[in-house]
């Protein structure tokens, strides 16, 4: 069993070598050549080599756009859905053993949630990677969903001090995430990087960057899951999210929040909400965010909030971010129709 994993490690390195070699050749020639597996010398199963050629062509297309050839370094191994199979506690795919291509069975730990997804999904490309001495199989899935019926709409306002505020069309409100904790952790990572920078420990800085990204990603996953669960509980059929194009250029923020707004991934959180909502059969629509934090939901007058409090001369007052979420419910949908008031 141990020898199979050693062979898999060598094959994953070979996979990356082939891609880098082909993209370098294409860069010299100015175009990607027409290739088959017979034209490429590589110690890879033909089905996997075919995928490597396709990946190299895709990387070269990006090279032409960005005018710089990326050199891939992290070993990986891709298998298309016709050449692997997933069992109850195993995965089988082709590797080379004793110079012969053999579909080899590897033990795998599949959770009940994994099994549930696989029962109803169409499997796509599978990616094999090694992380911290453990091997992972990442499979793309196409999952059919049934759209939730009903008229409930939820508006979600994303921010720094409050990561997300959700308001349903019936007025039910919930705040998600901990903005203070987020800012504290980012300050902590920033301070540690500064100290490592003075000591010129570049490798340690890179490791710390990866640790920060994993922490932020985990927070986004948890907040997005809580939002979708809130939507399911309230029988929501449509989620409205702000189209946050150029948010870093347009957001007005204090000096102490300036670094946070330039490093926090609003887009990633929105993407996590979207894909989790779609899996639950909830439609996601993006709306124009103009004036959503200033417009009074009661009389439509524009007012500026003072700190986190919003007050209007008409008598309406509430939390500033709640105002944004309430207005997002009825804001114009980009490329579609807005919800009626």
UniProtKB/TrEMBL annotation:
One of its GO terms (biological process) is transposition. The keyword Nucleotide-binding does not apply. The keyword Iron-sulfur does not apply. InterPro entries: Cas12f1-like_TNB (IPR010095), RNA-guided_DNA_endo/Transpos (IPR051399), Transposase (IPR001959). This is Transposase. One of its GO terms (molecular function) is DNA binding. Residues 266-328 form the Cas12f1-like TNB domain. Residues 139-247 form the Probable transposase IS891/IS1136/IS1341 domain.
């Amino acid at each position: 069993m141990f020898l199979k994993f050693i062979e898999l490690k060598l094959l994953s390195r070979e996979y990356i070598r082939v891609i880098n070699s082909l993209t370098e050749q294409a860069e010299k020639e100015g175009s990607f050549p027409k290739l088959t597996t017979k034209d490429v010398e590589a110690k890879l199963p033909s089905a996997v080599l075919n995928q490597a050629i396709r990946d190299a062509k895709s990387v070269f297309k990006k090279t032409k756009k960005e005018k710089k050839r990326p050199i891939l370094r992290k070993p990986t191994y891709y298998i298309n859905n016709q050449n692997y199979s997933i069992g109850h506690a195993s995965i089988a795919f082709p590797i080379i053993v004793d110079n012969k291509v053999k579909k080899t069975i590897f033990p795998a730990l599949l959770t009940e949630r994994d099994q549930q997804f696989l029962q109803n999904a169409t499997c796509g490309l599978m990616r094999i990677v090694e992380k911290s001495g453990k091997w992972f199989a990442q499979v793309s899935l196409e999952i059919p969903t049934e759209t939730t019926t009903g008229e409930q709409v939820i508006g979600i306002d994303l921010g720094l001090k409050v990561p997300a505020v959700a308001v349903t069309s019936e007025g039910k409100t919930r705040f998600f995430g901990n903005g203070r904790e987020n800012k504290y952790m980012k300050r902590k990572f920033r301070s540690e990087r500064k100290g490592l920078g003075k000591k010129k420990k570049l490798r340690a800085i890179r490791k710390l960057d990866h640790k920060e990204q994993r922490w932020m990603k985990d927070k986004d996953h948890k907040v997005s899951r809580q939002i979708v669960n809130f939507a399911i509980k309230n029988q929501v059929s449509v989620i409205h999210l702000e189209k946050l194009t150029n948010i870093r250029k347009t957001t007005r923020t204090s000096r102490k929040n300036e670094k946070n707004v330039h490093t926090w991934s609003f887009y990633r959180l929105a993407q996590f909400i979207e894909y989790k909502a779609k899996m639950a059969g909830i439609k996601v629509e993006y709306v124009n965010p103009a004036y959503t934090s200033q417009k009074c939901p009661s009389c439509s007058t524009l007012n500026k909030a003072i700190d986190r409090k919003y007050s209007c001369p008409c008598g309406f007052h509430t939390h500033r971010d709640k105002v944004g979420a309430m207005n997002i419910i009825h804001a114009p949908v980009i490329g579609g129709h807005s919800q009626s008031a």
